[in-house]
């Protein structure tokens, strides 16, 4: 099992109060940052430009993080872990990364007629998207 797959399998797919302690653990898990950046790349099936935009950094900085273990500020690590968790949940709901990405990039009433992806660059936006995914799981319309 590769490092990205191991991270994917251990990070919870729900962003709720019960899982916050797990999120805090992953944020404080130093020395493995590149594995988390590579896990996000793997699970999202996105290009470096898109992911670097989500994380609010240049493509070059993102690539540096992917290629070497570096100290990562806790707010960036939180964003990274939350994105992995969000994609894991989205894939569970929609079945494939492609279907989840299609939903993320389609205008949606619940998001002010914007694409859910519009909110992915903040932790509160990720929680907002995750709440909609939970709603969809329990029968709300997409």
What features would you highlight for this structure?
8 helices; mainly alpha; globular; 142 residues
What is the element layout, followed by pairings?
Blueprint lengths: L2 H8 L9 H9 L4 H12 L3 H8 L3 H9 L6 H21 L2 H8 L18 H15 L5
Précis, in short:
With 142 residues, this protein is mainly alpha-helical. The protein has helices at residues 3-10, 20-28, 33-44, 48-55, 59-67, 74-94, 97-104, 123-137.
Report on the structure:
The chain is an all-alpha fold and 142 residues long. It has one domain (3-137). The chain contains eight helices and no strands. The chain has helices spanning 3-10, 20-28, 33-44, 48-55, 59-67, 74-94, 97-104, 123-137. α3 runs parallel beside α6 (74-94) and α6 (74-94) crosses α7 (97-104). The longest helix is centred in the middle third of the chain and has 21 residues, at 74-94. The radius of gyration is 14 Å and the shape is globular.
Could you tell me the radius of gyration in angstroms?
A: 14 Å
- Specify the biggest β-sheet: none
The computed structural class is: mainly alpha
**What is the number of E strands?**
0
How many structural units, i.e. domains? 1
């Amino acid at each position: 099992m590769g490092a990205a797959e191991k991270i994917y399998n251990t990070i919870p797919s729900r962003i709720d109060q019960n899982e916050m302690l797990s999120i805090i653990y992953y944020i404080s898990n130093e020395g493995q940052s590149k594995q988390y950046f590579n896990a996000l790349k793997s699970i999202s099936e996105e290009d470096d430009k898109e992911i670097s935009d989500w994380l609010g950094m240049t493509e070059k900085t993102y690539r540096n993080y992917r290629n070497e273990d570096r100290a990562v500020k806790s707010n960036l690590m939180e964003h990274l872990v939350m994105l992995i968790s969000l994609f894991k949940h989205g894939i569970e709901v929609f079945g494939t990364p492609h279907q989840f990405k299609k939903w993320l990039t389609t205008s949606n009433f619940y998001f002010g007629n914007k694409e859910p992806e519009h909110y992915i660059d903040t932790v509160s936006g990720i929680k907002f998207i995750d709440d909609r995914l939970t709603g969809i799981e329990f029968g709300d319309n997409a």
